[in-house]
Amino acid sequence: MERSLQQVLANWADFAMLSEGDRQWLESVGQAQTLPVRAVLIQEGEPIPIIYIVLAGRFGVSVSAPEVEAGEQDWPHPKGAVQLGVLEPGELVGEISFIDDRPPVATVTALEPAQVWTIPRLQLNQKLVLDRRFSSRFYRILAAILSRRLRSIATLLARTQELPSPPLPKALFMFGVLNDADIDWMVAIGELQRWNPGTVLIQAGEVPVAVYIVLSGSFAVSVSFEPAFPKQEIAQLSRGEIVGEMSFVETATASATVVCRTSAQVLALPSSQLSAHLQQDYGFATRFYRAICVVVADRLREGLIKRGYSRLAFVEGQTLEDDLEYEDEIDLQTLEQTALARVRFDWMVKRLATKLK
């Protein structure tokens, strides 16, 4: 059953972009951990100082369901919990908590005797700060993995008639990570586009030609979970949202159709130019892919919690109200980054308006 880290990294597509030096570093700072069947690797709501790579065996991933009391257990998942999927060799575990530094949203349990490679988050964070080339590659891998995670639970997140309207536009997460030079580049190469109601910005099943930032107006996001069923609207996007980033990082076709609801303006970042710049500028690549990770991780966490899942990820005894912010949801540093992001976003919009004149 046992496999070495190098064997797994060499045979898993996600890690193909890592250099030999990257792989050797991951091996030097980590160690193997063996778990028996039914062992809990990660418990929903309990902080973890480690990120894992599955070397052998399979793990079940589940989230606490609405109205389920903490502590109830049943094999292979907590009683009444909802299974999100199964993790196999080569997959990362604990990636959402690594990105947003909050308690895990899911419980991960060994479905059979298994082995993982443990990487201390403290050392990984230090490496990401000191080595731009490594960080650009690692965050790119993480962005693609998180994007696939979000796609894989799309059906679960759509099981509600309520369309979430988060108070914080997702592009603002990006602008809190990118710097002024990055925004200058986006203004220089971006194409300002106007869209009329009813026109399709992104078509499901096709590869988007750009990553879009919504400057004004609104768009509807629809998916079809079964070929015979009509499309179901799952989200509405407005000023400050980012569109097409998941397909870009995965180099995959779009899983949803995005249609203009009202007259709108977007800044289109052509995929070809964006890809070329990411390959040339490791600093920009690190910030861009990390920003995508932050956006997608937030969508995953918020999507589950807003619908009543992953309730153990909150502090015990804390009340969940849709119209409140929570202490463990947005900290002071995040609020400061958000304020800076809003300033940058508004500055970009003014620059684009000048560009049109």
Q: Radius of gyration over alpha carbons? A: 21 Å
DSSP helix fraction = 25-40%
Beta fraction:
15-25%
**SSE pattern:** HHEEEEEEHEEHHHHHEEEEEEHEEHHH
Q: What is the CA–CA distance across the termini?
A: 65 Å
Major β-sheet annotation = 4 strands, antiparallel
What is the structural class? alpha+beta
Number of helices: 12
* Poorly predicted residue ranges: 161-167, 315-332
How many β-strand stretches? 16
Strand order of the largest sheet: 1-8-3-6
Mean pLDDT: 84
The best one-word shape is globular
Describe the structure.
There is one protein chain. The chain has 357 residues and is α+β, with helices and mostly antiparallel strands. It contains 12 helices and 16 strands. It has helices spanning 5-11, 20-29, 95-100, 121-130, 132-152, 154-157, 170-175, 180-189, 245-250, 271-280, 282-306, 332-356; strands at 31-35, 40-42, 50-56, 59-63, 82-87, 92-93, 107-110, 114-120, 191-195, 200-202, 210-216, 219-223, 232-237, 242-243, 257-260, 264-270. The strands form 4 sheets. A 4-stranded antiparallel beta sheet has the order 1-8-3-6. It has a 4-stranded antiparallel beta sheet with strand order 2-7-4-5, with no helix packed on it. Strand 12 and strand 13 form a beta hairpin. Residues 161-167 and 315-332 have low confidence and may be disordered.
